[in-house]
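User: Last request for today: this protein with adenosine-5'-diphosphate, please.
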Amino acid sequence: TLFRSIASHIAHEIRNPLVTMGGYAKRILKNMKENEPDPGKIIKSADIIYTESERLEKILANVMDFTKPSTYIKDFNDINHVIRDTYKLLKNVLFERGIKVNLDLNDNLPSVKCDFNQMKQVFINLFQNAIDATPEKGRIEIVTDSDETWVLITISDSGTGIIAEDPEVIFENFFTTKATGVGLGLANVKKIIKDHGGIIKAGNREEGGAEFRIKLPVPAAEQKSDYNEKIEGEG
Ligand code: ADP
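Assistant: Here's the final one, the structure of the complex with adenosine-5'-diphosphate:
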């Protein structure tokens, strides 16, 4: 049933851009066959075809993410490292948009047993959403901290805030308020966090903008010393 709903959603999403692309390709062909083809019109049509093909690529990338089998390679990783890595990746986009990022990362964070790349995917999605929701010269803040049982991560932005009445719905498959959105990003994020024994909550801040809180379990001490022994044993 989930598969069916995904399939029918994808079919629906893909149809519009395809119809548009076909229509404009036809226009180009028609124009080329005329005595004096109009380069202006041809460029305009080609431009629309290009934009629509980019949209299709985005839809597919989202779907691929979602349908990827979730085999995790879990190692002890420093979440701060994952966040800094993601930030580096998106630095240019953030700079272009004039968005200020504040990373307030606690240096004494215990490491978490997690799949580095999957965690990176989590932060890419959350960053991307914050960017989408943040008008020019906005702010994004990431804070990390920990207590005995959890590593705590808060990502907040100065954007539009979550429009939905119940913030939980934004984690549902296909919930989107964006014109070209697919609504699988946060569903994917929630799945990855859950598969790591964690929790994610969304809400709005009093001063405006959205806030996402993530908790990831701190591994038990004996689990970690086991791991360290293994590592040492290999050397
Ligand atoms: P998509 O980005 O394709 O819409 P997501 O699952 O990533 O899919 O997000 C679902 C919806 O949640 C968005 O369309 C938006 O309405 C809301 N949302 C997510 N992040 C934020 C944010 N930082 N601020 C405001 N709304 C958000």
